């Protein structure tokens, strides 16, 4: 028995001994939940390129919004006690929940909400949801409890989009290294490169959380993260990165494995502005050259699912498009020849340095070599990816995992990092947002997604499974991975 299995075995025996002795285990309301993660925030401001780790730690934990994107994909009011819409759909009036205070002690006012929305829509904002709020024409605050948003065009997704807008104290200033939210937890300490702690906020306006706080411990390697759970250094892993790791947690007296729904998509995104990726036939050829089923099996075994587009099944406009540009290497070679590349070509693939990107990159390199395309793999850090790829758009192709919910609308933004620009898609995305009903919105986005898929705007590889592993003493955590959120308030530990 190796050391990891031995540790798990001893832990399981200890748990069984306690239970057999009749020990009464009860949830400890002061317990600190120890969370293991691979996603450390780059900073603490979600409009400053903080990465997905900030959603995991801060969404609905430290910062709240007018609305919440729930774990099941529904949207419900949080700081908005009342929401009224004018007959023409262009004026939205929000009445704020009374008695809410920030962690600094300042009361929540309409001015704070206005300030928070304008942070996201500001020219300097790096929020991926910036364009989603572009329909806002003005924000008025007739009194401290009322926010009036006037739109240039109807926005059926406004409550959903506002769930991404943290309500921040307008006196907070720079929050890249501090916070001032209204959530059930406040920032304790952040040791960059290692850990971030959250403490229960005693003056929280709502129901008190079921625990005393959380400690997020950050790892750069999945093996180290798994070992932390095996050795009882953490209570829970928010997202297991490889099915091979699950065998280590097979002792059900010590560990619990749960699988939920994911919105995390692994894709190879092209810079559609530059040759040869501005050529639809080239993009379609690369899509047909990759055996996605084999790739998924190599990384996730029988978990997860192959994707035919950017839309996962949790979105209302999902349809199975895996038949478009299905695996067909001979057809891929023919398309390359038609595109003017009978001998193939060479490109550089910017590859984040954390799992499973490096493995995926090597697989793609081998697959594309079969049709004469040479891939030079350039491994970069998360920070480098953000500045080089997302911000400067200085790349040919890149691997990335996109975690956001309902994010096919990004293809309607020609300025997004991948540079896909189809006026018909842009118009359909805009029309979907101006829909009167959810059904109308879904049909227009379904149509847009078909066009995006037929043009192989990116190479959508697979949808991650959402696998959460914890010790058996820890319960009440969210199972789904929508927008990489990880709600803490309901988690209990015995």
Low-confidence stretches: 1-23
Strand content: 15-25%
Helix content: 25-40%
- Largest sheet strand order: 8-9-10-1-11-19-12
Distance between the terminal alpha carbons, to the nearest Å? 28 Å
Mean pLDDT: 92
How many helices? Answer: 12
Structural class: alpha+beta
- The rounded Rg comes to 23 Å
Largest sheet: 7 strands, mixed
DSSP strand count: 21
Shape, please?
A: globular
InterPro entries: Peptide/Ni-bd, SBP_5, SBP_5_dom
Subcellular location: Periplasm
Protein name: ABC transporter substrate-binding protein
Family: Belongs to the bacterial solute-binding protein 5 family.
Give me some keywords for this one:
21 strands, six-stranded mixed β-sheet, 494 residues, alpha+beta, 22% strand, single chain, disordered N terminus
Question: What features would you describe in this structure?
Answer:
- Keywords: Signal.
- The chain has 494 residues and is α+β, with helices and mostly antiparallel strands.
- 26% of the residues lie in helices and 22% in strands.
- Strand 8 and strand 9 form a beta hairpin.
- Helix 6 packs antiparallel against helix 8 (329-338) and helix 11 runs antiparallel to helix 12 (438-454).
- The chain is globular and about 70 Å long.
Secondary-structure blueprint:
Blueprint: H1 3-20, E1 32-37, H2 52-58, E2 67-69, E3 75-77, E4 80-85, E5 91-96, H3 110-121, E6 136-143, E7 146-151, H4 158-162, E8 185-191, E9 195-200, E10 213-218, H5 222-230, E11 236-237, E12 255-260, E13 265-270, H6 280-288, H7 292-300, E14 305-306, H8 329-338, E15 346-352, H9 357-369, E16 374-380, H10 382-391, E17 397-402, H11 423-433, H12 438-454, E18 458-463, E19 466-471, E20 474-475, E21 492-493
Parallel strand pairs: 1-10, 1-11, 15-16, 15-17
Antiparallel strand pairs: 2-3, 4-5, 5-7, 6-7, 8-9, 9-10, 11-19, 12-19, 13-17, 13-18, 14-18, 20-21
